[in-house]
Amino acid sequence: MTSTVPTAVHDEHASEHTDTLPPVTMFGPDFPYAYDDFLAHPAGLGQIPATEHGAEVAVIGGGLSGIVTAYELMKMGLRPVVYEADRIGGRLRTVGFEGCDGELTAEMGAMRFPPSSTALQHYIDLVGLVTEPFPNPLAPETPSTVVDLKGQSHYARTIDDLPQVYREVAEAWNACLEEGADFSDMNRAIRERDVPRIREIWAKLVEKLDNQTFYGFLCNSSAFTSFRHREIFGQVGFGTGGWDTDFPNSILEILRVVYTEADDHHRGIVGGSQQLPLRLWERAPEKIVHWAQGTSLSSLHDGAPRPAVTRLHRAAGDRIVVTDAGGDIRSYQAVVFTAQSWMLLSKIDCDDSLFPIDHWTAIERTHYMESSKLFVPVDRPFWLDKDEETGRDTMSMTLTDRMTRGTYLLDNGPDRPAVICLSYTWCDDSLKWLPLSANERMEVMLKSLSEIYPKVDIRKHIIGSPVTVSWENEPYFMGAFKANLPGHYRYQRRLFTHFMQDRLEAGQRGIFLAGDDISWTAGWAEGAVQTALNAVWGVMHRFGGATDPGNPGPGDVYDEIAPVELPED
Q1: Mean pLDDT, rounded, for 71-86
Q2: In which element (H, E) is residue 183 found?
Q3: How far from chain centre, in Å, is Cα 178?
Q4: Are strands 56-60 and 79-83 parallel, antiparallel or unpaired?
Q5: In this model, does residue 18 exceed pLDDT 50?
Q6: DSSP 311-351
């Protein structure tokens, strides 16, 4: 799932300079480990003793992190037992429109992915999915963008088409990043995979900025002394849209994204992102240990995962007992929990002894952002029609301070049915929609858009009922994704490093945390994949396995690149 944080806007000189460097990847800065290299190595991710082949491992949660975990453990010869309360995919959720062509889909969760998500791309390529440019505001592939603030609309194909104040805001953001966060230096170090330099820069910034909000970071910059500039930056921004809903969050969350260009050059998955976990579920690996050729996660589960987990507790022999909604009780030597972490506090009855008290505190303090979307199917991409008076597109990708905030136009080719994401909102903006039904939401959105496009009758093009989601109202999610508040660095470190269990007491080992909200870059599918690979290493280690010496895993190099540890006192 994408977040609403900004990317740096480079000037021409900087763009030419970075073009000469290697492509950026989500390589840190907290844990600069090359997950893409780990996945690409011919030796594979590791192996376990033959005596452990066929041993069951519980994987709780059938989202991307859970399915990647289960897939890789199956390849090692273990038997993953996947539990899923809702549907395979988690926040990779693609839905259709009732009564419409099956090719018309809406991405209710993750819908745009940056090239820097290189571990994610490994799996996209593995299952044969195709990506295409996503029509973000002012992106080269986006036909046009309209920025509508305080009742004034501006039509643009590039940022140079907008009034001067918008360019001033972009320049202020670039200056702010250089002044307060060593942007160019860190971006270069990440591109070159210069681990010592990454760690040197980041250690200083973590200590300096852990207590700082995103908004406070802007206010402390000499480049953002103007409230008007900060307001425009919050309402519109550059990249994916406005970011004022992120203003209360830790600036460290924002820096992780801009350093790795996670908000740049987005691509969507043709046919929908949920295909990725679904195809992994059905895929029979070419190289597999213990299991017969043709074995898949689906075949190991007779086609369907086990139901929701209702209880987790420890038993004798350091085993963990899992009770599911069907009343089945099983014990395991290892369990990987990839579902939303608040589930451990509410819907699942858990022993306190599952985790150290400091980890329970970190789970309880996890901060989630709300998010809502509403999509409608339309007869064709009518927005590409030209206005007879102006020669402009009839309608454009739209950023506004009105209720809709962000409107995205998604076509499948000329004269073919298409989809409009009428509104994509976050936090307080999302909560405004919560009491309304899908049709009520649509009516408010159409009214707002009619004020921006008075000559466009969107309604006459709609060919089906709207579909909507408010992630804070989803019973197995309770929010869109984690976003740390100031002072939360220590909590996140505890959760991310939990896979290194030799540091825990013997009675607290065996259950591993993974998933989007355990990662340093929550809101991005890459984080779900990386934490899955951490958990795979942890489970392998628990069963007495090891990686190939030529392809050390994240736990093997942990002591060399461990995240910065801030003092507790």
Answers
A1: 98
A2: helix 183-191
A3: 26
A4: parallel
A5: no
A6: EEEEEGGGEEEEEETTS-EEEES-EEE-S-GGGGTTTSEE-
Give the CA distances from residue 359 to residues 436, 476, 479, 516, in Å, rounded to whole numbers and listed in that order. 37, 21, 20, 16
* Bond before 29 cis per omega within 30 degrees: yes
Per-residue pLDDT reduced to its tens digit, 122-166: 999 999 999 999 999 999 999 999 999 999 999 999 999 999 999
> Which residue has better confidence, 243 or 33?
33
Helix-helix angle 183-191:12-19, to 10 degrees:
20
Q: List, in sequence order, every beta strand (DSSP E) within 406-562.
A: 406-410, 418-426, 467-470, 481-482, 511-513
- Mean pLDDT to the nearest integer, 114-121: 96
Name the average pLDDT for the chain.
Answer: 94
User: Could you tell me what percentage of the chain is helix, strand and coil, using 3-state DSSP and rounding each to the nearest 5?
Assistant: 40, 20, 45
Whole-angstrom distance, CA of residue 325 vs CA of residue 332 = 17
Structure tokens at 382: 């009518």
Query: Is the whole model's pTM more than 0.90, yes or no?
Result: yes
Place of tokens 């908004």: 215
Helix (H) or strand (E) holding 490, with range, is helix 489-496
Q: Please, which contacts does 413-418 make with residues 24 or more away whose CB atoms are closer than 8 Å?
A: 413/381, 414/380, 414/381, 414/384, 415/380, 416/380, 416/381, 417/100, 417/101, 417/103, 417/104, 417/377, 417/378, 417/379, 417/380, 417/463, 418/104, 418/377, 418/378, 418/379, 418/380, 418/381
